Amino acid sequence: MSREQIIYKHSALFWYTPDEQKQDISDALLVERILNDGTLDDCRELVETLGGKRVAEVFFAATGRQKANYYPEIYHFFSLILQKYA
């Protein structure tokens, strides 16, 4: 599955973005929305598409307000998972 397919499959998560601008969604926003509001299968698809290292890189690069956008329990869970497996 390509990055664009993931975005369009989960277009409801990006309801505020016009359809013609969805291909411009950054990796940081894509990772944030899928990890926060997607299912575990969605997260698995994301890791398969972007790669575990890229997802971990984007996830751990979030600081300050970006880091606060993650739900606390989601941030804790994925920080443990990505530190161990990515």
Structural overview:
The protein is mainly alpha-helical. It has one domain (3-85). 67% of the residues lie in helices and 0% in strands. The chain contains 6 helices and no strands. Helix 3 (40-50) packs across helix 4 and helix 4 crosses helix 6 (72-85). The mean pLDDT is 91.
Write the layout of secondary structure elements.
Blueprint: H1 3-9, H2 27-37, H3 40-50, H4 52-61, H5 64-68, H6 72-85
Helix pairs in contact: 3-4, 4-6
What distinguishing features does this structure have?
single chain; 86 residues; mainly alpha; 67% helix
SSE order, as H and E? HHHHHH
Q: Which outline best applies? A: globular
The overall pLDDT, averaged over residues, is 91
According to DSSP, the number of beta strands is: 0
Summarize the structure.
This protein has 86 residues and is mainly alpha-helical. 67% of the residues lie in helices and 0% in strands.
